[in-house]
Amino acid sequence: MPKLYFTSQKGSHIKYRKFGQPTLTVIIPAERKQIPAGTFNSILRQSGLTKEDFEK
Dihedral of CA 31/5/48/10: which sign? Predict the structure, then answer.
Protein backbone atom coordinates (compact mmCIF):
# COMPACT_ATOMS: atom_id res chain seq x y z
CA MET A 1 0.00 0.00 0.00
CA PRO A 2 1.41 3.42 -0.87
CA LYS A 3 2.25 5.68 2.02
CA LEU A 4 1.54 8.91 0.13
CA TYR A 5 -1.22 10.08 -2.16
CA PHE A 6 -1.30 12.93 -4.68
CA THR A 7 -3.22 16.03 -3.58
CA SER A 8 -2.47 18.80 -6.06
CA GLN A 9 0.13 20.51 -8.19
CA LYS A 10 0.81 24.22 -8.47
CA GLY A 11 3.55 25.33 -10.80
CA SER A 12 6.63 23.17 -10.34
CA HIS A 13 5.66 21.72 -6.95
CA ILE A 14 3.59 18.60 -6.28
CA LYS A 15 1.77 18.11 -2.96
CA TYR A 16 1.41 14.67 -1.44
CA ARG A 17 -0.32 13.72 1.80
CA LYS A 18 0.44 10.79 4.05
CA PHE A 19 -2.22 8.11 4.60
CA GLY A 20 -3.36 8.14 8.21
CA GLN A 21 -2.02 11.67 8.73
CA PRO A 22 -3.98 13.93 6.35
CA THR A 23 -2.46 17.05 7.90
CA LEU A 24 1.08 15.95 6.94
CA THR A 25 1.88 17.42 3.52
CA VAL A 26 5.08 16.67 1.61
CA ILE A 27 6.06 19.05 -1.20
CA ILE A 28 8.21 17.66 -4.02
CA PRO A 29 9.72 19.76 -6.83
CA ALA A 30 8.35 18.37 -10.10
CA GLU A 31 10.44 19.77 -12.90
CA ARG A 32 13.93 18.98 -11.67
CA LYS A 33 15.95 16.24 -13.27
CA GLN A 34 18.01 15.88 -10.13
CA ILE A 35 17.07 16.89 -6.58
CA PRO A 36 19.93 17.90 -4.26
CA ALA A 37 20.83 15.15 -1.76
CA GLY A 38 19.80 17.20 1.28
CA THR A 39 16.40 18.00 -0.23
CA PHE A 40 15.88 14.36 -1.20
CA ASN A 41 16.79 13.16 2.32
CA SER A 42 14.41 15.74 3.80
CA ILE A 43 11.57 14.49 1.56
CA LEU A 44 12.25 10.90 2.66
CA ARG A 45 12.38 11.88 6.34
CA GLN A 46 9.15 13.91 6.18
CA SER A 47 7.26 11.25 4.25
CA GLY A 48 8.47 8.27 6.26
CA LEU A 49 9.63 6.52 3.08
CA THR A 50 12.84 4.60 2.63
CA LYS A 51 14.98 5.09 -0.47
CA GLU A 52 13.82 1.67 -1.70
CA ASP A 53 10.13 2.64 -1.25
CA PHE A 54 10.70 5.87 -3.16
CA GLU A 55 12.34 4.07 -6.08
CA LYS A 56 9.29 1.80 -6.50
Answer: positive
